[in-house]
Amino acid sequence: MPRRLQNQFDQTPMTLAQSATQVPPNLTGRLRGLQSTARELPDTPVEIRGQVPSWLLGGSLLLNGPALWDLPHGSYGHWFDGLAMLHRVRLAPGDVGGASATYRSRYLQTDDLRESLAARKPARAAFGTADPAGFFTRMRHLRHPKVTDNGAVVMARIGSQWVAQTETPLLTSFDPDTLATTGRIVYDDAEVIHVMSAHGMTDAQGTYWNVGLEVGPKCTYKLFKIVQGSRRREVLARWSVRQAGYLHAFAMTPTHAIVWQPAMRLNAIKLALSGKGFIDSFAWNQAQGSRVDAISLTDGSVRSWAVPAMTGFHAVQAWDEPSPDGRSAATLVLDLCTNDGPEIFAALQMERLRAGQPVGVQHRVQRYRLEPGRSDAQPRTLVEGASVELPSVHGAYWGKKQSRHAWFAGFDPEGKAPMFDRTVKLDLDGGRIAGTWQREAAVQMEPLFVDRPGSTAEDDGVLLVPTLAEGDTGTVIGVVDPASMQCLATLHLPQVVPFGFHAAFKPAWMPG
Ligand SMILES: [Fe+2]
What is the pLDDT of residue 227? Predict the structure, then answer.
């Protein structure tokens, strides 16, 4: 390691992870969010500029995401694959009625992290990373493959227990205050699930919901829940398809779970035998198209609609629309961020992102009306010219009722800026961009909507937006008013938080 970098590392506590980091690429400006140089920091003061709403104080913004892509003998090739780090920004009352904040960070102590640090290279297969195990080793574990537990994508709860996860069934629990890893969730059942939506959801009762996939000659989807205090995956519905679509998330209404099958179709044999990265076992199938499945929460029955071929990671929202006479079955409505083709997966490879190459894939929000008695649905693009992803709405609306507006990370319409470069408010019903918040020459990630306690108006809360501009010394969290899209305050963190995907907010009243 060059002396300059070694000296730099010596200035702060060095962890096992950093000691194993190979020389990171010399990234500058906003692309520093793609470096492997984040440290485990103890509670460290955060500079606050502006006015933080008092109702946020006592709460913590939690971020997880990839942080370590580079090891001495090998690197992860895809953005999704970096080893996970947890970050916490705790807000507290400050002097003379103001606010104060501290930041801390810890690696998620997973088996994958331990094995990869020991091997000094990626130890397990990942989204875009080949399985380093030999063919015969893989065959020995054919029914129970050794998948990654690198929970770099989503944080959710089973009751008051926080878990971090990726697109595998392995949940890692952590303490939301210290960020210490507290163990692996050991299920009290015999369900076979190989692949799982990264977006486990926690309802108001603390029940964890998710959709898993048993991969085989036929692939079987399983909608399940885990109630607080239990470790049993209670399967509410099973339905089989010949070739499953790429599964990242799902949506819920008060009556149904909604699962979409992108046209990226899984080749189960390739997944079992090839040893390639997870996404390399999928192929775009335009002719087969896509499907949307709706699973009744009452009786587990499944209805399905054929839709045009698409790729979709995230639902904006979904709701039940009663029939006009109130006596027939409701229409289910799903707003989904979609794009065409398989290009988005390759566009997020580290080599391209670190070169500053724009993502270059047009995204849009499409509305699917899943009408009873029909077997297909034609989506409608809601806002022409708005290329957005990473949606967020008020918590009282998500999974419950329709929100007219939603908030997103937006792409540069001219297609020149790397990653996302703005925070966008869309009027989904009015078909227009209703507001934008943008720092100059910055990457702006998911705007997490934190609703004001007790609020019911869809824009009553704040957006918490991780950003990194060219001259920032560390990540800057924007505290943005979702109604006006004005920035109320900025939180200046003591280091660059590597670009991640999703955040969570633990309010002061929440135990655990
Ligand atoms: Fe996601």
Answer: 98
Query: Would you say residue 174 lies in a domain?
Result: yes
- Which pLDDT score, from 0 to 100, does residue 512 have? 65
Q: Each residue of 266-292: b (16+ CB within 10 Å) or e?
A: bebeebbebbebbbbbbebbeeebbbb
Beta sheet of 290-296, edge-to-edge order: 251-252, 256-261, 290-296, 302-307
Cα 153 to middle of ligand 1, angstroms? 6
Q: How far is the CA of 287 from the centre of ligand 1 (A)?
A: 26
Neighbours of 322 (CB within 10 A): 11
Burial class (CB in 10 A: 0-12, 13-18, 19+), 314: buried
In the numeric block, which tokens belong to residue 98? 């103001």
CATH code of residue 10: 2.130.10.10
The pLDDT tens digits for 276-291 are 888 989 999 999 999 9
Q: Which parts of the chain register pLDDT below 70?
A: 1-24, 135-144, 512
Ligand 1 center to 313 CA (angstroms): 6
CA of 402 to the centre of ligand 1 (A): 21
Query: Helical H runs in 343-413?
Result: 343-347, 350-354
- What is the predicted pLDDT for the residue at 277? 85
Number of domains in the chain: 1
Cα 211 to Cα 226: distance, rounded to the nearest angstrom? 11
